[in-house]
Each structure stands twice: as structure tokens, then as C-alpha cells.
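Run log, item B.
One chain of 279 residues. Sequence copied directly from the ordering sheet:
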Amino acid sequence: MSFDWRHHKAAIWRSGPPDQERGSPWTSDVVLRAVRAYDAVALDDVYSVDQQKRALVSNTERFLGGLKANHALLWGAKGTGKSSLIKAVLNHFAPQGLRLIQVEKSHLSDWLTIADLIWDTPEYHFILYCDDLSFDFGESSYKGLKSLIEGSIEMPPPNMLMYATSNRRHLLPEHMHENLDAHVEDTEIHMSEALEEKIALADRFGLRLGFYPFNQDAYLSLVDLYFPEPLSTRFVDREELHRMAIQFATARGGRSGRVAQQFHRHYSEDRSGSRVGMQ
């Protein structure tokens, strides 16, 4: 199967038989579907994560330049810009030949098939992107991730990297008893085997970037960017804007760029659908 990467910068990997009962348009030989509507987020639209942004941009520049680059894991609190940063990197570097293939974690073992499709397209560099990556006890799909990053008998093509996001630092759930199983030998701390295995899975990503909840100042600064002067007629002044924004975040259990955008959507009078940024 061929795919026209000249006119598409991203595709979604679809694997498995078509769902005829639900009227799926897929056929068994269609495994890549072009993205129909792109999120136009730019690097300047992703706020409060400047260090993470610089690191991921630098890694991607090395990748596109033919230098050694690392697989990247963006982990941390929800709504803090992990997915938006990867989409912004794609939008920024697409003119230089960067392309993206989104794949679900259950299909990570398909990476060899995906590799077959891109081996003969050295003019493009591909990010294999898995959003919200995590594994529960009993899942075996993480083995596909291990073979992708470390390689099996065949290494991944030089024009493919893995970028993933996760709410879990170590991708797998952790329990207190695993920390209690740690012991000391000759003044050295030895973790339990279960905990070592979990940490080792995330450690396979050479670039690990943490994203943390917004403090109130960062949250209100982003709200201010969404609501420049003149303010919406719904607010008497900026003090009232901030008070309502804080109430909005409290009702949703926390502050983040995503909550700031949702607040803007709820109160904005702009019908154009324009925005400051997406977190």
C-alpha cells in the first residue's frame, strides 16, 4: 500500500478487520488513514513549558539533521501541554520533512509493518506517536514498545522515532508494597524486582520530560492571554475575570492550560473559533 506523504503530514494507523456492523469504510488492506482536520497549534501557543519545549525541539532538529536522537516520553499532569507540544512540533517541522503516524498502544507490535512502509521514504522523518500511553497489570502490549525502542533482530529504520505522552512517569501502576520491598546491601539501596521492571520500561526513552500542574499565577497569565483588552462584556474588570477563572478551575479540580481554554470557550464572545493556544 502506498501513501502520499507529499500532501499529508500525519496519518492514523488502523489495524485489523473492518467493522462491518458499524458501517466502517475500512478495508483489510487500508492501514493508514490521512488526518482530515489538523490542530493548528504552534510552538508559541504552548505556554509554561519552555524547558520541555526547548528539549523536544532540539531532539527533533537532531533527528531531522540525521544525527542521533532519542525516543521521547512526555509524562505528567493532565492538560499541561504534552500532546499539544508534539502537535506543535509536527506543525513547525513539517515543511522540513517531518511526518507523524499516530498509533494506539494495542497496535505497538505493528511497528515492523509500519517500518516496512517507510523504509523506502528516506526524504521524510517519521514520529510514531502514542497518546496517553500506560499499561495495567496483565497487559502484554508493552512488549511491542520494548521491541520498538530496543529493536528485535531488526532495528527500527533510522527515519523513525517514538514520541509518547503519559500521565504516569513509569507507564505502569505503582504500589506502596513495592517500595517497602526495597532493601539495603552494603549501604546501597536495591529496589524490588517489580519496581525495577517498571522504571526500566520508562528508562528506555532517552528523553523524558515532566509536565507539572499550573500554579495560580501561570494559570491566570494564560487566562489573560485568552482575554486581552477589551474584555468580554461578561466581565466588569480583570479582577472579576480572575475570580471567575479561579472558580471555574476549582469546580474542575485543578488548574491547567486545558482548563484555561475551556474557560475561554465558555465565556468568549468570539465566534470565529480563534484561540491563543492549546494545552
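Observations after the first pass:
- The first helix runs from residue 50 to 64.
- Confidence is low (pLDDT under 50) at residues 18-28, 175-184, 188-192, 272-279.
Flagged for discussion on Thursday.
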